[in-house]
Amino acid sequence: MSTTLLLIQILNGLQFGLILFLVAAGLTLVFGVMDFINLAHGVQYMVGAYLAAAFSAMFGSFVLGLAAALPTALVIGLVLELLVFRHLYARSHLDQVLATFGVIVFLTEAARMIWGVEPLSIDVPAALSGSIEIADGVLYPVYRVAIIAAGLGVGLLLYVVVNHTRLGMLIRAGASNAPMVSALGVDIRLLFTFVFGFGAMLAGFAGAMVAPILSVEPSMGDTVVILAFVVIVIGGIGSIRGTFLAALLVGLVDTLGRFVAPALLKLVLDPAAASQTGRAIAPMLVYILMAATLFVRPAGLFPARR
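^ that's the sequence the OP posted. Answer follows.
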């Protein structure tokens, strides 16, 4: 096993984990604060990628496209909250799942009608193209380093906002006892709307950031939202710290599992069988990790304080 290749896979795992964190952070806030199961969070990730592609083509600049995509993703999230989701807060989780699945179908078909079924691509910004030497003879793309830096920056910002600002205090209080917060004069509906819109913008930001390195297509959010739910279950629902650490853990397990599992199986199996078996086992590792976490700590590794 090459040490250089292992280092690159670790960085890829961190990058993937931070993308998952950007998606799961909004999801855990919505789930933890509002007790609302939003399966449509994955299509908001997809919408962010399409918006970045469309605006980048319009302005001829990825930076300007990203700057336009974020507020647009926020507005779309707020419109969905006003028109659809706020009418489901008092309904059962089953009703929420069915309604948000309908939103998934609607937005997916809308994306196909507007942008077509062919995958779109965005060029990596010129300032972030190329590679840097992270070790002796080891090169890593600058843009992937930028994704890691952006994820860490958003994580730090969320930590400060949630734990050290009045808004964060209201969010934590609303998660603990929303009726009491409302009785104290806080517009809890407006707070919920803000949380939902901010979560949609984070998902859109994640989609926009991966657009230059992945194909932008209508189904791109399906797998991501499943892994985002895995992240918040492992980390603890409503916990930003837990979501951050769990996202890194899931990203590393998923990426390194696909790299390490076939290599380890080659010690006991022939190369062809080891490669085939390793590819089959690797995608299961994150779900095995989730099951083990639930067995040991049913509330997650770092559950939010109640």
